[in-house]
Write a structure and sequence with these properties.
Blueprint lengths: L1 H21 L14 E3 L13 H13 L4 E5 L6 H12 L5 E6 L6 H12 L8 H10 L2 H7 L2 E6 L21 H10 L5 E6 L4 H9 L3 E5 L7 H7 L8 H7 L4 H15 L3 H6 L9 H8 L4 H11 L16 H13 L4 E2 L3 E2 L2 H11 L1
Parallel strand pairs: 1-3, 2-5, 2-6, 3-4, 4-5
Antiparallel strand pairs: 7-8
Helix pairs in contact: 1-5, 2-3, 7-8, 14-15, 14-16
The chain binds adenosine-5'-diphosphate and magnesium ion.
The site of adenosine-5'-diphosphate has 15 residues, from α3 and α11.
Length: 362
């Protein structure tokens, strides 16, 4: 027994010495390039994606040229975060020793996530004693593993770690220490990259990227002109009205696909008829928008309902009568971090969200 413990200790001391050496950026020289190992089993497959050339180029620059440690893709559901990340992986996969794609919809808590990642990054070798491997893995932090190999870890649906019904950014109890882990990954030297896909901008990331060159956020925008190809593929009619439809649905590819089905079902594919109907019918988009709405706290709901009644962009000096100054500022900042409010000449709602909220209060 004593012999076994001292064997474990001596292996641990040797390993930690190696790890300490790797902490300095100057000494990051992979001696023998390891066999690449990629697990994309949880990454969805897509057919016929339109290339988001500019956003892909930006992401490649951040990852390959600037060694970004944490990149966050934000945007409402359906805008194309997962699809963009999937395309990105194809462009950068040969530059990483390890690639792991996991969804937060399938992971119960932070401990499970960490052990899962570590197990993937450093699985036991057939020749190794499992008790020694477990001992070493528990002592070596995730950060050590990110230093030992160049890893790309994609965590999808990160908003699932945040508490609904509160202002944005508070972790659920089972993800309490996530902020600390993110800070560690963002602040320490390594050549790996964590890619977070989320509806809501985590607070640590907002703070990290103001002071840290290695942490970046890319708001994923609508498809722009490429959105017409979605309507064309769905064989909708009245091409001259397509730009109006695209604007209403913010060129969101999922939303446009859903509404295209409604237009085909009820209006024989006529965009003109759909748009001239007295109220804007959201069809199967309602349950999707409801998921976003249900995550809001009371002050955000009050503010969103008030914003939906405003015809012009709202200045920061204006506020709804039912909220105090402090609650108004907190709520508007939180809605912005959830991509539910946009800031141009003032604060506005996307037309489809405005309509959803109007339906709720009418
Ligand atoms: N670049 C694209 N070209 C064409 N369709 C797209 C593109 N990006 C997304 N889509 C469509 O929109 C749907 C939603 O995209 P997804 O990436 O899953 O959104 P998100 O992850 O932001 O919720 C996809 O299933 C796909 O049909
Ligand atoms: Mg997604």
């Amino acid at each position: 027994m004593m012999g076994c413990i001292s064997a474990i200790k001596s292996i641990f001391v040797a390993t930690s010495t190696i790890n300490q050496k790797k902490r300095s950026p100057a000494t990051f020289t992979p001696r023998n390039k390891p066999e690449p190992r990629h697990d994309l089993s949880q990454a969805p497959e897509y057919n016929r994606l339109h290339n988001r050339t500019e956003q892909l180029a930006t992401l490649k620059q951040w990852i390959l040229e600037e060694n970004s440690r944490i990149i966050t893709l934000t945007g409402l559901s359906g805008i194309g975060k997962t699809a963009l990340a999937r395309q990105l992986v194809e462009h950068v996969e040969d530059k990483f020793d390890r690639i792991l794609w996991r969804s937060h919809r399938k992971l119960p808590n932070l401990n499970a996530l960490q052990s899962h990642i570590i197990e993937f990054l450093a699985p036991p070798q057939p020749s190794q004693n499992p008790s020694i491997v477990n001992y070493l893995n528990s002592r070596n932090s995730l950060l050590d593993h990110l230093r030992n190999h160049r890893c790309l870890i994609i965590l999808d649906d990160f908003q699932e770690t945040l508490t609904p019904g509160e202002l944005v950014g508070n972790y659920r109890p089972e993800y309490q220490n996530y902020g600390q882990l993110i800070n560690e990954i963002g602040q320490h030297t390594h050549h790996s990259c964590l890619l977070l896909l989320t509806w809501e901008h985590p607070l640590e990331i907002a703070t990290l990227e103001t002071e840290n060159f290695y942490c970046k956020t890319l708001p994923v925008l609508g498809l722009g002109k490429l959105a017409t190809e979605i309507l064309s593929a769905r064989k909708l009619k009245d091409q001259k009205k397509w730009s109006e439809l695209i604007e209403i649905y913010s060129a969101n590819p999922l939303w446009l696909n859903i509404i295209a089905s409604t237009i085909l079902d009820l209006f024989n594919g006529s965009v003109q008829e759909y748009l001239s109907y007295p109220t804007l019918y959201l069809g199967d988009l309602e349950p999707i928008l409801k998921q976003h709405y249900q995550r809001l706290c009371e002050s955000e709901k009050i503010l969103l309902q008030w914003l939906a009644t405003q015809d012009q962009p709202v200045k920061i000096s204006q506020k709804p009568p039912l909220l105090s100054d402090a609650d108004f500022l907190k709520a508007i900042q939180s809605l912005k971090r959830r991509s539910l409010v946009e800031k141009t000449s003032g604060f506005t709602l996307q037309p489809a969200i405005k309509q959803y909220v109007k339906n709720l209060i009418s």
